[in-house]
Amino acid sequence: MTIAVLPGDGIGVEVTAAALRVLRAVRADLDYAHGDVGGAAIERHGSALPAETLALCRRSAAMLFGAVGDPRYDAPGSPRPESAILGLRKEFDLFANIRPVKQIPGLEDASSLRPELLRDLDLVVVRETTSGLYFGQPKKQFSDDGVEAAVDTMIYRRPEIERIARVAFELARERRRRVTSVDKQNVLETSRLWRRVVVAVHEEYHEVELEHMLVDTAAMQLMRDPQRFDVILTENTFGDILSDEAAMLTGSLGNLPSATFGAAQRADGRFGLYEPISGTAPDIAGKGIANPIAAILSAALLCRHSLCDEDAAARIENAVAKTIASGARTRDLARDGAPSLGTEAFTDRVMGAL
Ligand code: IPM
Ligand code: MG
Q: Annotated catalytic residue: which of 9, 70, 240, 332?
């Protein structure tokens, strides 16, 4: 069984190496094959998602992804590193991005919110990732009667909303049975359709409680009372923004793993893409100080969902919890002036805890 390892750019390289060390320790039996994505792939192949990488992903059981993005490719007309992740989501129809936000005991004081607001924090953002503003056409810059203009299109089709709503309701059924569907229905037509379809799909899930919340209110409630949430269901752009906000509740963007699934199923596990939500962090890239927790926990999700190996997943998650409980911290998690470990030294501690 092959796992595609796609480190990409910036700290993606460092944190994916850390996650791979941990993954190899629990699953030495798999074939781990590296592929180029993002700015690194543009440099070597002229494309953010080269054909070789796509072929590798097609024959893999899952993808362990790092991060993509590089300010060097910001010039107009330049190929964009981000098209690698967007292309993978589209190519494999990976529409359901699951971002669990769970407090790691011991890190309550790393957050900028008061610890008592965070103690039992355990929510999941279910984000749609193949439609909406990210992909809608037209999408371009143009001249509007000689004035520079640009357009992005927010579009949702009923089946796209139905299938992501089902993912959220099914997940909620296994949890605290509460879905908060986030939209902007006081302004956006796509949100009005979204809300109508979510209500209709909810008919099949009476055991789950459904509430609707406007996205601005949701951003506020995540700061005011984050423990009120169980499953947050939302569209692509809102989910991108709210999941970064939710991640900071746990103390750092570097803590949050994610899994993205499509409709494709194998008998022995689901095909999926696993990535830290942190991004490339160009300011600290290459310095060896990035927090590898999100990437390591993404490897745990890969074991759970794509390998159906709950034991390996739990071992990794326990090792991270133990490492934090022992007082080890990366720089982003350490209190002002407190000592901290680099990416490798922190990963050594996780390996020890395994
Ligand atoms: C994420 C990232 C991506 C997104 C970028 C890199 C295109 O921010 O996975 O949250 O916006 O989806
Ligand atoms: Mg994001």
A: 240
Degrees to nearest 5, angle at CA 53 with 51 and 56: 110
- Residue 215 has phi, psi (to 5 degrees) of -65, -35
Provide the mean pLDDT of the chain: 96
Residue whose CA is closest, atom 12 of ligand 1?
240
pLDDT digits (tens, 9 = 90+) for 207-240: 999 999 999 999 999 999 999 999 999 999 999 9
pLDDT band at 265; cut points 50, 70, 90: low
Q: Which CATH code is given to the segment(s) 112-250?
A: 3.40.718.10
CATH number 3.90.120.10 is the correct assignment for the domain at 1-95+256-354? no
**Which of 240, 277, 298 maximizes ligand 1 atoms within 8 Å of its Cβ, making it the mutation to test the pocket?**
240
Domain ranges of the chain: 1-95+256-354, 112-250
pLDDT tens-digit map of 58-67: 999 999 999 9
* Crossing angle of helices 11-26 and 310-325, rounded to 10°: 120
